[in-house]
Records
---
Amino acid sequence: MKEKIQDRIVSPQMSLIDAMKRMDALGVKILFVYEENIFLGLLTIGDIQRAIIRNVALNDVIGKILDKNKIYASTDDEESVIKEKMRRLRAECMPIIDGNGNLVDVWFWKEIFINEKAPERNPIDVPVVIMAGGKGTRLRPLTNVIPKPLVPIGQKTILEEIMDRFEGIGCKRFYMSVNYKSDMIKYYLSQLEHQYQIEFFQETRPLGTIGSVALLKEIIHTPFFVSNCDILIDQDYREVYDYHVANHNELTVITAVKSHQIPYGVVETGENGLMTALKEKPETTYMINTGVYVLNPELISDIPQGEFFHITDLMEVIRRRGGRIGCFPVSENAWRDVGEWNEYLKMIDVL
């Protein structure tokens, strides 16, 4: 049995950041935690995300955050009972535990329900604002010819990929800020077999990363998503929305946990230039703003009409008055900035 999960077996002494990296490397969102030969439990990406939100340090060990209340199946359970548990929990996999707490088998959804998709959670119909007015200078000379939202990824454009991910969770109403080559964007979308429900609003000049949203005052009256037009995130946005509402945030930022390793030994010095420490190729971890947000509708009034205004300016307005800005973390590989040449080339290389 262990052979089919061997790559996913980790120690409880592994750090949160290393667990995220292991998930990214394997392209999975679940790991199996063992202490020597004893099964301790499952670790999911959701467990790690909730721990980061609780301010658990990324270098802390995963043994501290294991959920002891996860539901598993028993060797005494009939097949129909195990299947019902998997459907009810929308479980990618179900550990089978014997009377001594040993893991004796793992049922994977794709193996048990070969032609059946995992049950979806309830859809949400939340407005989505897509900022599609920029010139896409990082993708020149390609964007000298076509606007960045129409840059192809496989059989679709970046724009369609973004909207399809939102439609997949139930979002149907799109508001699109356009400026550069807007006629081309509108014409392309009008010719698609699948017609999206889009209301365009036009920038007459560049207004920054959030400035044009002021044009939606009195139009949007519920919390809404805002997405740059070059960002793809492997995350169920419903979980982000739930966190935003439950935490009473005014604004929620999806952040990516990104590591950067300095490829040299780093020297620390003290008085008279004497060495106090030497760190060989140290690694630093940051929380990166991905460019996808959830905003409360009241924030639209804080965006000045017709002025150049960045999302960071709005964040400062909220911070100065003591408002709540939440951060929902995703792993480094769950975020793709397709508007940058290296990432774009990586993306099309794997398609």
---
Amino acid sequence: MPSALDRLAYAASQGLRRSWFYGHYLLAAAAERRDGVPAPRRRLPGRDRLRADLEALFERDWAAIAAGLYATPHDLWTDPRRALAASRAFLADLASVSARRRRGDHQEVARDPAFAHLPRYYRQNFHYQTDGWLSERSARLYDFQVEVLFSGGADAMRRGALIPIGEALARAGPAAGLLDIGCGTGRFLTFVKDNWPRLAVLGVDLSPAYLAAARRNLRPWRSAAFAQAAAERLPLRDAAVDVATCVYLLHELPPGVRRRVAAEAARVLRPGGRLVVVDSLQHGDRPDYDALLDRFPDAFHEPYFASWLAADLPAIFAAAGLVARAVELRFLTKIAVFDRPAA
């Protein structure tokens, strides 16, 4: 059981984390205003409400750790030198993002013939991000950018998925394996490995640069493999894995591709297997947050986000043969659990 000192260490680290990333969020928000992002059409949640909900997220995260549902993260304390270097890189890139936003240019990647072999929906500068998902620079920036967006709460939101994963692994037994669809830099897989260091995991992503980052991030653990492939064409045989995860991917996909990803996830799951989806809230999950969700595409290039907000997840996955089991809301994130019925 964690001690009182462990509780104090967690609270101190998350307090520093929240302040650090919220300060960067304010700088990014100021840049958005200068860039002419339209004023919100409806009233947004106030800062006090957002701060209280973020605090509640950290309390929930700690409660799960204290209850033994998952482990304290391996990097509870960040090296200050790395944090400062990441901050400098983020702020330097913010100027490029602002310039791209003012021009309305989110197609730089699409114009590069080196990436012509990749799906067209993928070849965009999502979030007006420099290089899209397709460079080492982008991969170095990504996790910091996500934490800025969520004021330091992204990791605590992701970790909620570990609870339904643990339930599925206990059911599957010691030979179980896990597939992370759209693994990016492998950040979520490091939390998986914190808890099940011997678990065989496979991360699939389209970006060679992000896969290289994932390999580096998973280097401390064994039994971690990676493959470059599209989420709608997974390089696995039928019924190959016991657990699959999909973290912050579906809102980046066109509706048709989203449905094909659901079908692929169902195909590669064994009977009795489980898919855990971690993604943005949708309309109606927290009605007073709907205006905040609507504002997101105004500030960032998010071409498929509006379709995500209205998507019927249970229907999409039911059409693929999966059964909705549970939904949990963690701050700005939804964790949805789907099972493939046992034969």
---
Amino acid sequence: MPMAHSPGKYVDFEGLRQQAVALRRAGYSLRQIRDELKIFNNDILNQLVKGEPPPEWTKRPNAKDDLRAKARELRLQGWTYDQIEAELGCSRSSVSLWVRDLPRPEPRYTPEEQRALMREGLARRRATEREKLEMTKVAALRETGELTDRELFMVGVALYWAEGSKSKPYDRRERAIFVNSDPGVIKTYLAWLDLLEVDRERLNFRLLIHESADVDAAHRFWSAVADVDTSVFAKPTLKKHNPKTVRKNTGDDYHGCLVIGVARSAHLYNRIEGWWAGIVAQAETRLG
């Protein structure tokens, strides 16, 4: 058996070629032809079967052929690269390779329609987010349960210490004065004063509001919140307008702040200081 590495060194190269072609046409693979003819040089083996297509059974199926065909079909329907990529789960580079010879589809929407669709989508997303937030709030509200007197007491102490006036070591005024713009906070504070049996006759009310606001409307608003007549309000304190600043607290929802003072409140104020000191001491023990 000849062992040459070029066709010229085989005694009967043409005869070998005829045998190789016959085997190829009979459905032999290159490996089967090599084993049959004992031709172990790949270059010579390829020359022996040159021009003869491999049998169908030796061709590996291309898993992406179906994807390619589908991508081209979708592109012809006017789909964008992003849509095809998402639909078929393949890379953008593959989509581009498969369909780049096809004509670019006409835009499905005008720029105005696209902006309108974006606004609609954003509105739907925000509505969904608001719905989730409201569900969270409702669930949290249910977790609160019934408020006991002790719980209200502790809440009131913390509220006052966060929002009420406080005496300084160098300036002991010892007066209970509370200021806030949140109606819920005001109602909770008043409920706390009722719990402490502070006579409503000892309370005085004053509005703290920007000079450009509707003072009369604000008086009516806070009188309803505090359940008092507008006649009990002292002269309002008006904030001067600074032309260099842009106010955001404007419009019908702006009512300023309500100031609630308690007459003859030195004893009450000192009790509040003591209560808060007790809460802090208990919190410190939890911290270790």
